[in-house]
Design brief:
The chain contains ten helices and ten strands. It has 295 residues and is an alpha/beta fold. It has two domains: 238 residues, Rossmann fold (3-Layer(aba) Sandwich), CATH 3.40.50; 36 residues, no CATH class. A six-stranded mixed beta sheet has the order 5-4-3-6-7-10, with helices on both faces. A two-stranded antiparallel ribbon has the order 1-2. A two-stranded antiparallel sheet has the order 8-9. The chain is globular and about 70 Å long. 34% of the residues are buried. The model has no long low-confidence stretch (mean pLDDT 81).
């Protein structure tokens, strides 16, 4: 298989995966512990146990808490949940949110399959969803890359990304306990916190939130036409107006606080990634922060 997917994969193998080899290989086994496991036995609960392992059916029958014990598989299954909605294509720049999503997803897929682990993917927008069953090997990563680069044909139509539906699709698709990377800007309608919480009760979930600097701090551009990437709604705004800038900052701060709070309440490992960040630095920082969180 040749063409754009192969060129992209080769570039990332050379510039990202090769540089990370030896720095991250095997690190996820200690950082994301508890993944890739099978049920082995039951025992009574102790205060040191993870409450997520409580077997509530047995607890109800025995009238005292019991936890499930697991044995670790030799192989780990990772899933990439990729938001391909209109807001991810915000701004037609060389390295936008969709480009960063692709680089992260392909790099993670190659890192995990390089160690013999299986990787699956869920590509989502409101108009189309594609599920790629987990497999291993470079050819599989090449296929995943090809599917990601196909993108979507969805255009702004007045609907906002249904992140709750994306996460519920993930929960219904991924039956076996896995390591799940949700890569999105987390811009969408509705309350997705409950769905993310339910997903994290069964799986190890890592949220990689991609942001464009202009979404956080809009520079003074004078009078501009602003279009909502998801709904297509357009309004004129005077970006030189101090009141407009203050309102915008307040809205951004409120949104950032709300997202951070939801991530924390869902008990997921959350990382905010700027589109200007280096992919290697991003992945190394992700593992380092996860190590501190798990310590």
């Amino acid at each position: 298989m040749t063409g754009a997917p192969d060129r992209l994969l080769r570039r990332l193998e050379w510039h990202v995966v090769r540089r990370l080899d030896g720095r991250l290989q095997g690190a996820y086994r200690t950082v994301f512990r508890g993944t890739g496991i099978d049920f082995a036995d039951l025992r009574t609960y102790t205060p040191e146990d993870d409450v997520r392992h409580i077997d509530w059916n047995v607890t109800a029958r025995m009238d005292e808490p019991y936890v499930r014990q697991y044995t670790e598989d030799r192989e780990l299954t990772a899933w990439l949940v990729l938001d391909q909605s209109a807001s991810m294509r915000y701004r037609a720049v060389e390295r936008g949110k969709d480009s960063v999503l692709t680089e992260l997803a392909v790099s993670l897929a190659r890192l995990f399959t390089h160690g013999g682990n299986r990787v699956g993917a869920i590509l989502y927008d409101n108009h189309a969803q594609r599920v790629i069953p987990p497999k291993t090997g470079r050819n599989h990563v090449l296929y995943v890359t090809q599917q990601i680069l196909k993108g979507t044909t969805g255009k702004p139509d007045g609907t906002v990304t249904n992140l709750d539906a994306m996460l519920r699709l993930t929960a219904s698709t991924v039956r076996r306990r896995s390591l799940i990377f949700v890569i999105s800007d987390f811009i969408g309608a509705g309350n997705w916190e409950a769905a993310l919480t339910r997903l994290s009760l069964r799986h190890e979930v890592v949220a990689l939130r991609i942001v464009d600097p202009m979404e956080l701090d809009l520079p003074d551009l004078g009078l501009v036409l602003i279009e909502d990437a998801e709904t297509g709604e357009q309004v004129f705004a005077d970006t030189s107006d101090p009141l407009f800038q203050q309102r915008l900052r307040d809205e951004v701060d409120a949104r950032e606080d709300a997202v951070a709070t939801s991530m924390a309440r869902a008990h997921v490992s959350a990382h905010r990634i700027d589109t200007e960040q280096d992919v290697v630095a991003t992945l190394v920082d992700m593992v380092r922060r996860s190590k501190r969180r798990k310590a």
